[in-house]
Amino acid sequence: MTTKPIKQRDENRLSWLARNLYNQWLILAAFLFSVTLVIIMAVSAQRLAERTIDNAAKMVSLQYEKLHNLLNLHLSGQNRTVNLGLVLMLQDAFEQDQAMNAFYQSGRNYTVHRDKLTELIQGDPNEVKWMDQINAMAKVTGPLQNRIANMALNEQRAQGIELLTHQVVPQLNVFSEKVNDFSRDQAKDTKQLITEAKHQVDDMVHVIILFTLLIIVTSVVLAFIIGRKFLRMNQRLKQANETLEKEVEARTRKLYETKEALLQKNRILEELSITDPLTQLYNRLKMESLLETFQQEFEQNNTPFSLLLIDLDFFKSINDSFGHNQGDQVLIELSVCLKLFFNENAHLGRWGGEEFIVVMENSDLTIAEQTADAFRKLVEDHEFSIAKPLTVSIGIASIKPNEPIAEFIHRADIALYSAKHNGRNQVRTESSAEQKD
Questions:
Q1: Using one digit for the tens of pLDDT, what is the confidence trace for 114-139?
Q2: Do residues 290 and 421 share a domain?
Q3: What is the pTM of this model?
Q4: Is the model's pLDDT at 36 over the cut of 80?
Q5: In this structure, are residues 340 and 284 in contact, taking their beta carbons and an 8 Å threshold?
Q6: Where are the alpha helices (DSSP H) in 216-283?
Q7: DSSP-derived pairing of the beta strands 392-398 and 427-429
Q8: Are 269 and 325 within one domain?
Q9: Which of the listed residues 250, 273, 296 is the one where a domain comes to its end?
Q10: Is residue 327 in a domain?
Q11: SS3 396
Q12: CA triplet 178, 179, 183: central angle to 5 degrees?
């Protein structure tokens, strides 16, 4: 009877040990399964995160390539307009030919970057719509630029400058605004793409950490390691985000600087279009525009103004005796005399050849005649660079009500003719010219 209880106790001990070992193996197996599951999820999450980052990087790279081609497209359009302006302004045939070649090369570069940009934006309706607008503008501006280039080759520079100033340059400004809009949209899309990628990775981290805690408490260390790993991923993405934002900001700043440079060049082109290259006075086109403006003010406010046509006497003999270079120097010196003598209410211009024009604001015929005679005496007493005294003849006219500009100029021209016909070195008005005749 004693042997049976002992044997039963041994069997119970063995059964307890077996169950205990079984439970321990089961716990260990469950733990290993949990750890394996966590590792599998971590690896999968890591690959998914890397794939997300890679996709984001590819998309950002695509945005960068769009911006790159957009910048080159913009620069090509600017260079084409600047070179066209040089074709119109340059007098030297060799330099004009170089500018014309650069003009056509800029057009070819524009086409290359336009086609590349068109390939990159396929699939985005807004970007395709924007590109269609740019192409529509190019279909208007391109032929107009070619027409202006042909005008330059056919010595129709004044008409070409007018078309460039009033039609091409405004179109180019609209084009610049379109480029800025596209650049801002690209920057916005890039930031949104980076933000979405960051949110995806952040959400993934949170889900993994929570699921790990729910599966097994003993995997805290492993979860901590995984968390740190994903934190590093997040830092990588944040660093990439900061780098990309800086790059987008730099590109945007470069586009802004390019726009400012274009505006500066446009201002230079506008100044060149209204300035006589030899004397740096206003050219004939600008003076005609000023006369129309003052005529409108006269009709509205009855503000008088007068016109002086000044002709350098015997200028042909200067060219014949001293050469054309010395003749140009004399014209420059006479323009300096004009600038020093007349005040800010007088607008000075070169009318053509050795003939100059002065428009005097708030001036009637008497004041204009007195001023003109004083200037005539100044020129007569001035020592020019050639060893020969020089004189000028001056014709004067004051505006009349409802008088066309052409008739106004014609009256001054008649007075100038009378001054030259009656001995030169004198001032004549239309009335004095009629009395003299």
A1: 898 888 887 778 888 888 888 888 88
A2: yes
A3: 0.44
A4: yes
A5: no
A6: 220-273
A7: parallel
A8: no
A9: 273
A10: yes
A11: strand
A12: 120
Helices 3-89 and 220-273, axial angle in degrees (round to 10): 0
What is the SS3 assignment for 282?
strand
- The CA-atom distances, in angstroms, between 45 and each of 205, 223, 308 are 8, 13, 86
* Span 164-177, pLDDT tens digits: 888 888 877 888 88
278 falls within a domain: no
Tell me, what's the pLDDT at 265?
66
Q: Residue 226: pLDDT band by 50, 70, 90 thresholds?
A: low
Number of C-beta neighbours around residue 69 at 10 A? 20
The beta-strand segments (E) located in 294-367 are: 305-312, 346-352, 355-361
Q: Which of 240, 273, 306 is the last residue of a domain?
A: 273
Please count the other Cβ atoms lying within 10 Å of the Cβ belonging to residue 285: 17
CA-wise closest residue to 394 among 434, 338, 355: 355
Quote the CA–CA distance of 34 and 40 in Å, as a whole number. Answer: 10
| Cβ contact 419:369 at 8 Å | no
Domain that includes residue 368, residue range: 284-436
Radius of gyration from C-alpha coordinates of the chain: 42
Residue 206: pLDDT band with limits 50, 70, 90:
confident
62-74 residue pLDDT tens: 878 888 888 888 8
Secondary structure (3-state) at 394? strand
Which has the closest alpha carbon to 329: 337, 419, 341, 364?
Answer: 337
Give me the pLDDT at residue 399, please: 95
Task: Give all strands (DSSP E) within 109-160, no chain letters.
Answer: none
* Three-state DSSP class for residue 174: helix
| Cα separations in angstroms, 157 against 87, 163, 170, 353, 362 | 9, 10, 19, 17, 33
What pLDDT, on the 0 to 100 scale, is given for residue 55?
82
Model confidence at 241: pLDDT above 60: yes
